[in-house]
Design brief:
The protein is an alpha/beta fold. The protein folds into 2 domains: 195 residues, Rossmann fold, CATH 3.40.50; 99 residues, Orthogonal Bundle (Helicase, Ruva Protein, domain 3), CATH 1.10.8.80. Helix content is 43%, strand content 15%. The strands form 5 sheets. A 5-stranded parallel β-sheet has the order 3-6-9-1-10. The protein is globular and about 70 Å long.
């Protein structure tokens, strides 16, 4: 008997999304080439690379948080190099202004009119290096673009080209000269990953691949922005059964009622976990989302959005442990 959350032969009921020009096989094949390109630069980090691809296919934004020197910026740059699209790097510093991000209207003496000069946010992939070094005012300049994919300057709204993804890096332990990201900013990142130190074998391979030349220089695009946009549309067709949706809602609600958290996951987190699970299933070659997909994504999608209670902090319980426990308390959907 087939699992209850698999896509039935009759298809989905109700209004279905428009058909995509790309198939599930295209998603697996193209993203496989992108993964291979990134892994030629980043050794031994398959889970981090896969999560970056999940966020890309789910039209989200990625926060890479870890200690210096473990390849946070390299991952973001490798992702941008693997796709033939516009890529901009913004180095966040304390003196960075909001207009440097969004753009500014400049008076043109020749035309006798104001002319808009786009800022760093106008690209398909925006690499925000050390985002927590900018002031809260500058960080807030990205809120509209990350959520609504548009920029409003001087009463005029400018749409951002698709696909659009922000890959931001930050150092969690270096507090001097940094500004912690506010809750509203963190909530706009679909997922957060930690690179971690490489294994001895991967570090040994790194000495050979990075010791004499920069592998990023040899990395060539394996796809383009138009193809990625088509793959994103294909991912939206991945089936999510009512039972799995119910399971998703129960996971998010478990964070809101946990005694170890003083701030649970938001409704935006519910939507982004759904989108991420579709992309996760597509990369695995499945046309339906399983409960295991949600369980695997719960920590990277939810952990950076919640705040631990004072009691949990005194007990030295991490948000990863709290989210994992919350998922474990939720009853799995019926598989029959």
């Amino acid at each position: 008997m087939s699992l209850s959350y698999e896509k039935s032969a009759g298809g989905q009921t109700g209004m279905s999304p428009l058909p995509s020009l790309y198939s599930l096989e295209d998603v697996v094949e193209v993203m496989g080439r992108v993964r291979e390109g990134i892994e030629s630069v980043i050794e031994g980090k398959r889970s981090s690379v896969d999560l970056a691809l999940v966020v890309l296919l789910a039209e989200g934004h990625l926060l890479v948080e870890d200690v210096p020197g473990v390849g946070k910026t390299m991952l973001a740059k490798a992702l941008g190099r693997s796709i033939d699209c516009t890529v901009r790097r913004v180095q966040f510093t304390p003196d960075l202004l909001p207009s440097d991000i969004t753009g500014v209207s400049v008076f043109n003496q020749e035309t006798r009119d104001f002319e808009f000069k786009p800022g760093g946010i106008f690209a398909n992939i925006v690499v925000g290096d050390e985002i927590n070094r900018a002031s809260p005012k500058t960080q807030s300049a990205m809120l509209e673009s990350m959520e609504e994919r548009q920029v409003s300057v001087d009463g005029t709204t400018y749409l951002l080209e698709a696909p659009f993804m922000v890959v931001a890096t930050q150092n969690p332990i270096e507090m001097e000269g940094t500004y912690p990201l506010p809750e509203a900013q963190r909530d706009r990142f679909m997922a957060r990953i930690e690179m971690g130190y490489p294994t001895p074998t991967a570090e040994l391979d790194m000495l050979d691949s990075h010791g004499s030349f920069d592998p990023l220089e040899k990395l060539t695009p394996v796809t383009d922005a138009a193809t990625v946009s088509g793959l994103i549309d294909a991912v939206k067709l991945i089936h999510v059964s009512p039972a799995v949706k119910q399971y998703l809602v129960q996971i998010v609600n478990a964070t809101r009622h946990s005694r170890d958290l003083r701030l649970g996951a938001s409704p935006r987190a519910t939507l982004q976990l759904l989108r991420a699970s579709r992309a996760y299933a597509a990369l695995a070659g499945r046309d339906y989302v399983s409960p295991d997909d949600l369980a695997a994504l719960a920590v990277p999608v939810l952990a950076h959005r919640v705040l631990p209670s004072t009691e949990a902090q005194l007990a030295r319980r991490t948000v990863t442990e709290i989210i994992s426990h919350a998922v474990a308390t939720v009853h799995l959907p019926d598989r029959r």
